[in-house]
Amino acid sequence: MRPDGWHVTEELDDFLARAGDFLRSRPALHTVPLTVTETLRTRGADAYGTEAPIFGWLDRAGEVRAAFFRTPPRRLSLTPLTPDEADSLADHLAGLSPLLPGVTADHDTATVFAEAWQQHAGTTPTLHERQRLYRLGTLTPPEPLPEGRGRVAGQHDREQLIVWYREFVEDIGAIASADAGSWADTRIDYGRVTFWETADGTPVSVAGVTPMVAGQIRVAPVYTPAHLRGRGYAGAATVEVSRAALAAGAVDILLFADLANPTSNGLYQRIGYRPVADFAVYDFTCAAQEGR
After folding, report:
1. What is the reported pTM?
2. Distance from CA of residue 14 to its chain's centroid?
3. How far apart are CA 127 and CA 111, in angstroms?
4. Residue from 225, 46, 54, 242 nearest 134 by CA
5. Contacts for 288 with CB less than 8 Å, ≥ 6 apart
6. Which end of the chain is more exposed for a tag (fewer CB within 10 A), N or C?
7. Backbone angles phi and psi of 280, in degrees to 5
8. Rounded to 5 degrees, what are φ and ψ at 195?
9. CA 175 → CA 92, 114, 117, 167, 230, distances in Å?
10. Could you list the pLDDT tens digit for every one of the 292 residues in the chain?
């Protein structure tokens, strides 16, 4: 442990033994580290790629106060930090490697860490996205629902899921969380993805969910091909998986929405989702890269 209280490890079991209770103490706000570490625990350290994940926690007087993780090549993910804590973490991580692609966290934490990283690592932070975390209150299906029905995806839907997953990742400008085939297989095996299909059986939208951890399930992703949007299909698919999560006993049902997309934010609020916190995603560019 450093004098500032930060611990860093590549051992998931060590991280969960030390920081697991802290993460479970605020399952809604900590939904991302909870679901990512559960995926790593059940599917192995290479679930998100070949490079080893890194984990860390802040220990003050024997109590965990904050945590972080990273699954390279993706951004660093942080739980809430004070400005001083963000500065000490940036100083520590910059000493290990100044190459960090970005950060995602609640808005205030992401902002102060981006500023600290600029100071310690000489990068230029750029705001990539602002997100809002929502939690389901009272599920309120839209009336009328579009014609059709919800259906849990099966093995015969694998190719459709692969195509739509790739389109979704490209659409939001993200790094795929896994190989598209592996992503589809895992969700089919555990019944964690649902189509909304028209009366003739044509899939028109899809919604997935994360495994339940600490009583919370997160809806992700929700995707409708561009030429099918504006017809209520995404809302219908989201209602279907939300209803299933309630039936499974989830205490918190969560989802993220891009604040630059007023349509999706309005939709989620109309069907019963209420704001929890705002998040920010920053990209970091070093001076050497800028000069190319």
Report:
1. 0.93
2. 22
3. 9
4. 242
5. none
6. C
7. -135, 150
8. -90, 150
9. 26, 20, 22, 12, 26
10. 566 899 999 999 999 999 999 999 999 999 999 999 999 999 999 988 899 999 999 999 999 999 999 999 999 999 999 999 999 999 999 998 878 999 999 999 999 999 999 999 999 999 999 999 999 999 999 989 999 999 999 999 999 999 999 999 988 877 766 688 888 999 999 899 999 999 999 999 999 999 999 999 999 999 999 999 999 999 999 999 999 999 999 999 999 999 999 999 999 999 999 999 999 999 999 754 443 3
**Cα–Cα distance for residue pair 62/84, rounded to 1 Å:** 19
And the tokens for 159? 């190719």
Quickly tell me which residue has 């989201």 as its tokens: 238
Q: What angle do CA 218, 222, 224 make, to 5 degrees?
A: 175
